[in-house]
Design goal:
Layout: E1 18-21, E2 39-50, E3 62-72, E4 76-84, E5 93-97, E6 106-109, E7 113-114, E8 124-134, E9 138-139, E10 143-147
Antiparallel strand pairs: 1-5, 2-3, 3-6, 3-7, 4-5, 4-8, 8-9, 8-10
């Protein structure tokens, strides 16, 4: 049986004044303390298992987790990566927030975490967290995802 636990409402909004930039060569930046007036939170977390078209789907299936950031009072680079409860970390990614848009509350779509489950008959029970590493260190609440294929 396929179970997916969703801990937050579904939805994604990409704000104006923000861009996702390629991060293959992103260098980790040193976090600083949070400043007064800076808002950064994770919203709209959603977990699904793609290619799971029956109660006993054939392998592979593709767990998929997405979220957005809510930011205000922050401009410039925001760096983050996905962390799974199995100690897997995704690549370092970054968003760039235009300074002209920093005063407004924004919803910034994060690059989803996607992977392939090929372990036939093995129930995966994982938790995913967004770990913001810059401008300051912050971790979101976790979302649960369960996947099995046959």
């Amino acid at each position: 049986m396929r179970l997916v636990n969703v801990a937050a409402p579904i939805g994604m909004v990409m704000a104006l004044g923000c861009s996702n930039t390629p991060t293959r060569d992103a260098k980790p930046l040193t976090p600083r303390p949070r400043r007064d007036g800076e808002v950064l939170d994770v919203s709209n977390m959603m977990a699904t298992v793609r290619n799971a078209t029956s109660a006993r789907p054939n392998c592979p299936v593709n767990p998929h987790v997405e979220a957005s950031l809510v930011v205000q009072g922050i401009s410039g680079t925001i760096q983050y990566h996905w962390e799974r409860s199995d100690s897997t970390s995704g690549p370092l990614r970054q968003l760039v927030v235009d300074s002209a848009a920093a005063a407004k509350m924004q919803h910034l779509a994060l690059t989803p975490d996607d992977w392939t489950d090929t372990k036939s008959g093995v129930q995966l029970r994982l938790q995913e967290t967004v770990h913001v590493t810059y401008p300051f260190d912050f971790r979101s609440p976790s979302i649960n995802i369960n996947a099995t294929c046959y």
